[in-house]
Predict the 3D structure of the following.
Amino acid sequence: MSNTKNIVNVFVPCCMDLFVPASAQSMMSVLERLGDECLYVSELTCCGRQFYIRGDRDTASKLAYQLTSAFDNEYDIVVPSPACAGFIKNTYGDLTSMQSFPKAVGHVTKRTFELCDYIVNEKKVTCLGNNFPHKVFYFQSCSERNSYRSGNEIITLLENTGGLKLFMDLSMNTCCSANGGSAFHNHELSEFLLKMIVDRALESEAEFITCSDVHCLQYIDAYLQQEGIDIETASIPQILNSFEEDNVDEEE
């Protein structure tokens, strides 16, 4: 494991901050184990992605300015969500083009990393020494595939987790429908897509479902509870920070 001392900016997505803050704490614990000092700005509440999706460009632009201003330094930005990280990298340049934004926007769009990408490709670590002795079904979110365009970093870290038996179906090129308003406007389609994901997890006899985007995982979890299905959810940071079997219960 790398012992290189480093300072990183940490951005916590709004849905994680509001509903599963223990996962954000897990992310920081992982980074600190890697020798990083985390700079967290509590005033940052949202990257603007959800507003942008709904057509509120003005609010998204204001939030982009706020984040860019807060991270006007030379440090990398680590985000535990490929959806938010991808939005920052791909959209902030356009959102800030019509206003007097800090020069830091170029730095922000280039040096924002999804958590696992940062660990594997920047810190050069492929095994954290963590332990999660459970059967886990990994659902690859559409943002991970299409927006951030992750490689195999998440899979590598899961495969190198002690005791974890990994199941996945990367050919299942589907969406959980958590993004935008599709779940509200077409509830039947939303439930159909969720059922596809959960049925695949049931086929693998998984105990847990995980996903790199916490808003997707929350949506899947709501479906599991609605249907009374005996599978739990665990975030990627939660798994990476698990060194004892009871860590899952501590974060719920």
